[in-house]
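May I ask you for just one protein sequence along with its backbone structure tokens in two labelled lines?

_____
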Amino acid sequence: MVTLLSAALSTLIDVHWDCRALTPPQRQWCETFARAATTLTTPAAPPSVRIDAMRAQAAAARAAELPLVATYLERVSDAAAGGDAVAAETALRAAAHSPVLVLVRVQKASADASPFGDVIVGVRDPDDAWLLSFQQRLDAFARTLSPASAAWDKGTVPPGVSAIGDLVARAGASAQSTAPASYPPFDASLRPVVGRSWIHWKNMTVAGWFERQVKPAGVASLDGAAVRALDGAALSRWYALRYVTSDLGPKVVNGKPLQDALGDAWAPIVIVKADVTAVLASQWLRRGSLDTDLATFLGVTIHTLNDVVRGDAPPQHRASTCIALNWCLRHGGLVARKNGWHIAPRAMLASLRTLASEVLAIETAGDRERAAKLIAEYGTVTPEIQTMLDRLPPPTPPKATVHYDILESAR
């Protein structure tokens, strides 16, 4: 049975419900849905009551001329009745086109193997008009990368994912998490079940990822100019974009899943692709200054490697972070100095472009040998990197989380 959890529904709606894109009936529906949260989320309520309440809200959404939201809620109700997480995921992708975004977290509970989820509602902000054409713009961005055959896989990411990212990045600073204690961004309690998560970026940052972990790593390893460019908003933007750009490139090569084609090299290759192309996408979309995007990318990359070596970040991030750092060092984008690593902005941007091209070429060909060669040549802790790591403090223990995880079903 699906348990529908929704701490902070009212907070999200208070932030967004007066969106000018909504009609009065649609605004009324948002308010009504917020008030219905108690019935939808009270564990003591019989499951049939919760499902009936969700179906009633679906009917109300349809009457308010929110057909995609209505369809979404109907499918969530059906998923609750039948335990079908795939149906809820399909509904999420359809609902992403709607002016009102209703997001669900679906996960297999460890105790009884029954799915459960968080329902979060919010309204797209019309002032961010760039989001409406985000998919087309990202398609164009993909075409700037080499090889040209490394096309955007439209079947794997909802076109409205950018709007979702923008919504969660701004909407829930005061939201209280209903998730079990976890370690953002590496959520060990959820990763084995779903493989990958969309973290509530702003709340994750507030909980301490930037101030407590990324920034200290940057301060200890980078020179003064780069340290001054570190920025929490850039971290949020990068993290949102990397979960979009991770699906650049093919998923099947010569009839074989990419993961099977690349073998053990798959995880580091996919991770470094997402990390690097997120920086390029931010620049192409003109969402941040070059100095800020590069410095923040280095800060999170260095922190992540430190957390692999001295903490409990996933081990596959060792090779991916080392590839990015060594590539930039050897191609002139980074210069190791006694007072901290120095960024040569244009050279580093060019380095990231060539690295993205190399990784996408590997994926497009499903070339396991080329992937292994890249990891062997660039994916290790070199003396330069070790000297930098020796300057870093131990990773800061995670703070109690104040974030939402919006999870997609396991691939």
